[in-house]
Amino acid sequence: MLNYHEILATAMFRPINPHVPVVLWAIGQTYAPFAKIPDNEYYADPAKMLEAQVKFYERFPDVLTIPGIWPDLGLMAELGALGAELEFPDDAPPQSRGGAFEDIREVENWEVPDPKKADYTSQTLDYLKYFCKHLPEEPRKKWGFLDGHIFCGGPGEISGLLLGYDKFSYAMYDYPQLVHILLRKVTDFIKSYIDAQIEIVGEPKRVIIWDHIPGMLSRELFDEFIHPYMKEVFTHVEKATLRIYHNENNYPHLLDLMRDIPANVCHIGPKHDLVESKRVLKKCVMGNVHPIQELLLGTNEEIEAKCKTIIETAGRGGGLWLSTGGGMAPETPVEKMQVLIDCTKKYLPPSL
User: Fold this and answer.
1) What is the separation of C-alpha 310 from the centre of its chain, rounded to a whole number of angstroms?
2) Domains of the chain, with CATH numbers?
3) Are 304 and 336 in contact (CB under 8 A)?
4) Residue-wise DSSP of 160-174
5) pLDDT value at position 352?
6) How far apart are CA 68 and CA 127, in angstroms?
7) CB-based burial, 221-255: b 16+ in 10 Å, e otherwise
8) What's the rounded Cα separation, in Å, for the pair 31 and 54?
9) Domain Uroporphyrinogen decarboxylase (URO-D), which positions (predicted)?
10) What pTM was computed for the model?
11) Rounded distance, CA 227 to CA 221, Å?
12) Does 67 sit behind a cis peptide bond, omega within 30 degrees of 0 on the bond before it?
């Protein structure tokens, strides 16, 4: 298996190991069922959360996971801090029941909280301090977990969920200036939240930003409303070695615009053509085995065939991390994950 230095080199299109790395997107939806810890206990207790993540690491010690070992509270941190209504199911991650606004016009007088004091972001920061104190030394040294490690949502999706996707969509046409006010305030909050994380983990080295809303928008709407704010967030952490953008939605119509965003790895969805995406983005692509139709429901032989095709068509010259095209389904058995890992040992991309 590739070590962290070799995985970084592949992301920078300077592969020093001929094999394509496998990188698994693993969050609470994977960790909690893997460790057989109920969701309501996993998210409520940093000790159980860390225990589950370390158990997953111990099962796959030679595989890099993204976001990695991290106090992942789903959408709860950013949305809850900014006033969204949340619910805490017994058998699912925390989720939003409703936005923070009934009307876009409310954003003009909206005061954004300090993420270090607001509910939920302050909780995540406390969890992060716990993780930093109690994470075993081996995964910390091997993969750099928690060392300059930043994880948060992007301005488009957070704004869309605070207002509601339907209202947000109409407002881009009816109240464009108010949408910009909302995005401005959310972007400033995100940057402050990132800075609060930096105070705990140190200068950014590995940054993961999730924002799925671009795949729902036309080129014109994305270019006007989302692109400048997303670019600003990534520019805020542009000194980080890894700057990963996560979005499994379908956005081939935006690839040339996304090229301008200072991320250097794009975790993309299963509908994307990896070869074309890599060519246009000029960034490392992470994907794109379908997490449900192929990894969860496919046979081992079907998964292997898909991985072989990905490696042999998109792996030439680096710039490919084999993974699922989006997050893994909670029920995904570890045996299926192992198929991906075994394929990267068995198959090589064509040489240049």
Assistant:
1) 21
2) 4-346 (3.20.20.210)
3) no
4) HHHH-HHHHHHHHHH
5) 60
6) 15
7) bbeebbbebbbbbbebbeebebbbbbbbbbbbebb
8) 9
9) 19-347
10) 0.97
11) 9
12) yes
Q: Which residue has the tokens 């490919």?
A: 320
For 144, residues 6+ apart whose C-beta sits below 8 A from its C-beta are: 4, 205, 206
What secondary structure letter does DSSP report for 22?
Answer: B
Residue 291 tokens read as 């997490």
Half-sphere exposure at residue 347, Cβ-oriented, CA atoms within 13 angstroms: 23
Compute mean pLDDT per 10 residues along the chain, 352 residues long, and list them.
95 97 97 95 97 98 97 92 94 90 97 97 98 98 97 98 97 99 99 99 98 97 99 98 96 97 97 97 97 97 98 98 95 96 97 72
Dist. CA 12–CA 137, nearest whole Å:
27
**Residue 174: per-residue pLDDT:** 98
Q: CA-CA distance, 260 to 141, in Å (whole number)?
A: 33
Contacts of 232 by beta carbon, 8 Å cutoff, 6+ apart:
155, 187, 191
Q: Enumerate the β-bridge partners of residue 65.
A: 24
pLDDT confidence of residue 336? 97
